[in-house]
């Protein structure tokens, strides 16, 4: 699909650190995607929508809050009745400064090109978000008011994530530490389950309750992040990298990587690798 580029210099005036907007999404199928050099967050105030990237279709419903990093081609399409979206565009430097000061921010605004982060807000949480958004909309577009909105929001999300982690059984939390080792995640979901010492079905139910992910989802995320580091930092061939993370089927490797980063492994290497001799 055709991709166009949006730049913060064309949206944010001098001295502005964010742009705030409300809109109704078109139900017309997007003819093009767009990438951007800024961070962004939006939430669906009501209705349904779909976030489209090169390798993914993410369904969205009322209450879904989405964090977008730069360099990920995407488009939004409304579905069904009118879909109202609230959007905040963030100057790239401001988010990077926040990540430097508060590393927890990075889990919501990950590296450029990463898959979007989606969290769901219930009715009470949406009411709180709407109140904070009204204050942000009325405020000067400066760092002070941007942080007054972002920090309580992200701190609340981080606290919710911590509560979920604290309810995680000890056997699972230990297994999740061990599965960071490529020797273990190379075996896929089976490698993770083996570290738990429990039946696969029990591990899957527990992970779904605690993390909202299946063992395969969790392990494939580790695999793709490891592959991305190799693509950026080494001249290793794609087949070597895929084999080292336990994926012998290159088509499957490409599908997983594209779903995670919105581009093929080769495109990712070309975009992010610098100063490394490329394999012949």
UniProtKB/TrEMBL annotation:
Which Pfam families is this protein grouped with? AraC_binding, HTH_18
Annotated GO molecular function terms are:
DNA-binding transcription factor activity; sequence-specific DNA binding
Q: Output the superkingdom of the source species.
A: Bacteria
Keyword Transcription present in the record's keywords: the answer is yes
Keywords tagged on the record: Activator, Cytoplasm, DNA-binding, Transcription, Transcription regulation
Q: Ranges for the HTH araC/xylS-type domain? A: 192-271
List the InterPro entries hit by this protein, alphabetically: AraC-bd, AraC_XylS_family_regulators, Homeodomain-like_sf, HTH-like, HTH_AraC, HTH_AraC-typ_CS, RmlC-like_jellyroll, Tscrpt_reg_AraC-type_HTH
- Kindly give the PROSITE patterns that the UniProt entry links to this protein: HTH_ARAC_FAMILY_1, HTH_ARAC_FAMILY_2
Instruction: Quote the PANTHER family the UniProt record gives.
Output: HTH-TYPE TRANSCRIPTIONAL ACTIVATOR RHAS (PTHR46796:SF13), HTH-TYPE TRANSCRIPTIONAL ACTIVATOR RHAS-RELATED (PTHR46796)
This chain's protein is named AraC family transcriptional regulator
């Amino acid at each position: 699909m055709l991709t166009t580029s949006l730049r913060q210099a064309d949206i944010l005036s001098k001295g502005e650190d964010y742009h705030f907007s409300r809109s109704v999404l078109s139900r017309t199928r997007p003819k093009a995607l767009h990438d951007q050099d800024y961070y962004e967050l939006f939430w669906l105030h009501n209705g349904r929508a779909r976030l489209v990237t090169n390798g993914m279709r993410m369904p969205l419903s009322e209450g879904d809050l989405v964090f977008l990093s730069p360099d990920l081609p995407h488009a939004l399409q409304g579905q069904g009745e009118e879909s109202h979206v609230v959007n905040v565009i963030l100057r790239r430097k401001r988010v990077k400064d926040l990540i430097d000061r508060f590393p927890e921010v990075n889990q919501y605004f990950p590296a450029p090109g990463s898959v979007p982060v989606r969290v769901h807000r219930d009715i009470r949480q949406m009411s709180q978000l709407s109140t904070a958004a009204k204050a942000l909309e009325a405020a000067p577009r400066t760092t002070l008011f941007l942080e007054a909105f972002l920090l309580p929001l992200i701190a609340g999300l981080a606290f919710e994530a911590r509560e979920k982690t604290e309810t995680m059984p000890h056997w699972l939390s230990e297994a999740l530490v061990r599965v960071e080792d490529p020797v273990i995640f190379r075996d896929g979901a089976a490698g993770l389950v083996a570290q738990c010492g429990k039946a696969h079905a029990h591990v899957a139910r527990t992970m779904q309750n605690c993390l909202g992910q299946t063992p395969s989802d969790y392990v494939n995320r580790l695999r793709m992040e490891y592959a991305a580091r190799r693509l950026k930092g080494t001249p290793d061939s794609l087949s070597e990298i895929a084999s080292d993370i336990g994926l012998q089927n290159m088509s499957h490797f490409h599908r997983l990587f594209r779903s995670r980063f919105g581009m093929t492994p080769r495109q990712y290497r070309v975009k992010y690798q610098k100063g490394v001799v490329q394999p012949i």
